[in-house]
Amino acid sequence: MNNKKKRKRESIMKNLKELYDYRQMIFSLVKKDLRGRYKGSALGFLWTFLNPLLQLVVYSIVFSTIFRNNIEKFYLYLFIGLLPWMFFSSSLTVGSVSVISSKDMVKKIYFPREVLPIAYVTSSFVNMLLCFLVVFIVMIIGGIDPNSTFHWTALLYLPIVMIVEYVLALGFAMLASALTVYFRDLEHILGIITMAWMYATPILYDVSMIQNILVEKGMGNLMHLYMLNPMTPIIVAYHQILYYGQAPDMSTLLSAVVLGLFFLILGYLVFRKLQRGFAEEL
Amino acid sequence: MKPENAIEVKDVTKKFKVYLDKGSQLKERLLFHERNRYEERWVLKGISFEVKKGEAIGLIGHNGCGKSTTLKLLTRIIYPDAGSIEMRGRVSSLIELGAGFHPDMSGRENIYTNAAIFGLTKKEIDARMDDIIAFSELEEFLDNPVRTYSSGMYMRLAFSVAINVDADILLIDEILAVGDTNFQAKCFNKLREIKAQGTTIVIVSHSLGQIEQICERSIWIHDGQIRAEGSPRDVHPEYLSFMGEKRQEIAEKEKERQEEKEQKKHHEEAEEKKVSPEELEKTKQDGRWGNGHARIQSVKLYAENGQEQNVFATGSLVMVKVAYELKETVKDAVFGIGVFRSDGVQCYGTNTRIDQLEEFNLTKSGTMCLSLDHVNLLPGEYWLDIAIESEVGIPVDYYRQAAKVEFYSQIGDVGIARIDHKWKLPE
């Protein structure tokens, strides 16, 4: 029994080392994906920025004029939450078909299959980083109230939060891409799930609003359920850093890290288990 | 894993599910339960073998026997249902060449992506770039998109990448049919070179000749099990005669069917022509097999002056006379000869088909003469194999070590055969 465990650990170590050896493949897939994403469209790479900007306009109009809220500079609040969300949701939905869409390669040649979801999530991540340039420009143009409590030093936490989100997104992408091979409907189901998931995450509103409503209705303990959403601490941290200019709460950061690692390990183990049958199932 | 081994395969079994009508959607899975019916087919029923470091082995067997599945298991595209496979070192496969090529990208870019699929880093690829380009002979086309390549060029590029990976273990599936004859020869030499550098090679091929040239060992897989294993010289004749018998059976069935047809047509009795199994067995002795329709009686060697002898001077003429007795007409007969050094190295081999002689039928017993004009074999003992085959390669009489011949020489040159040569001294 012990021997089996040891063997399993050894095979995981070997796999991780192999993944490192295959970094050039990941890199070239990311490059291919980024280059190919808008190839042939008139605006080309500009779509990278236009797409979230247009979504932002729509949400801003709906949520600041039709459904009123009391968040100042709502467009900025929205934008800061929307970009990480778009990264996560595309990792989940488009990432779920990352293995299926490379079916020709999977059936014919060997490479560690984990490369496929990793490459997709990484390219989405790079895409998000580029979009954040726009956020910074908006922040600088929009200006910060000199009397506010905004600390630029809070930005030092930003890379940590981004990495944690990357880890979480990768975990979900691995889980989804492996399961979708055996169960193709998942791709479509995930589309619906992410739509609902977005409203369960504090992107268009503030966490305190949910809390107030739940407490008013006497269902305060439902808040724990709400906080189980692994994207909540991440989006809260983004807002704390970029919108409020504060270092994120350690408890928020910690729960984000724990959830991220949990889902990465879960996704990785499920993927390892299921990838053995990929070539036959596809 | 033993330290001297590169590959260890232990009791590997593999079954495939053959779906009669597969549904992969939820609706289909739930509603049409009968759609998920499948048959299980055991492709491998327990295979074990080991390959030492630097060894080259060939997997042979008829279509669907499981040899390609074995190779796919070694590449880790699929996994065994039971048993274990252990391999040491970097594995490269020449199985699906060019999978992962992107038609819109240039040859050069594709080299990068393709080499990356083998797990090479950019630095490693850069280091090999010149070798890859030189080997592919595609310098001028390297910046054109791959979709503009001919299929031969495509394969050449893919082969060049795969073979320059510097793998510890190289897996090859029936691919030495790349490009024109020149390129094939080049691939072959490269394979030898790689082997000499200590790479372990596993080849799946129907071309036994290719395996004989590269591999020290052949494994014959039959219906998912290893049927024979050993040096190609021992395994291949066994395999060939098995396949010959099988073909004979098929040919006989075909013949019976034809005869039945004719019977119906002409309402006549057709003559039964069949070799009894006892007769087949009788002709299948050590180092000798065939269907027995003709049998080699004697193989005699004569010198230029007509004297029968078995010892010749290097470079002299050797006349081979093969006397055969005919039991049944042999259509489109092919005579073949193989010359082997006493340690088993094949020095030469040819037959009337290779030499493009007109096809001929054997209708009565007789003698076949073959004059070997200048036999430049260096001193030592040699064996001659003589074979008669019919129509589609069915062995009629394959006679191993039919005659022994010895050569002598005063000159102390070394090797297998003397190459005619001249020195030109510097002025």
What does this protein look like?
With 282 residues, chain A is mainly α. Chain A has one domain. Chain A contains 13 helices and no strands. In chain A, helix 4 packs antiparallel against helix 6 and helix 4 packs antiparallel against helix 8. The longest helix of chain A has 28 residues. The longest helix of chain B has 35 residues. In chain B, the strands form four sheets. In chain B, strands 10, 12, 14, 15, 16, 18 and 19 form a seven-stranded mixed sheet that branches. Chain B has a six-stranded mixed sheet with strand order 5-6-7-3-8-9, with helices on both faces. A three-stranded antiparallel sheet of chain B has the order 2-1-4, covered by helices on one side. Chain B folds into two domains: 229 residues, Rossmann fold (3-Layer(aba) Sandwich); 124 residues, abc- transporter (atp binding component) like domain (Coagulation Factor XIII, Chain A, domain 1). About 4% of the residues of chain B have low confidence. In chain B, 28% of the residues lie in helices and 34% in strands. Chain B has 427 residues and is of the alpha/beta class. Chain B starts with a strand and ends in a 19-residue tail after the last strand.
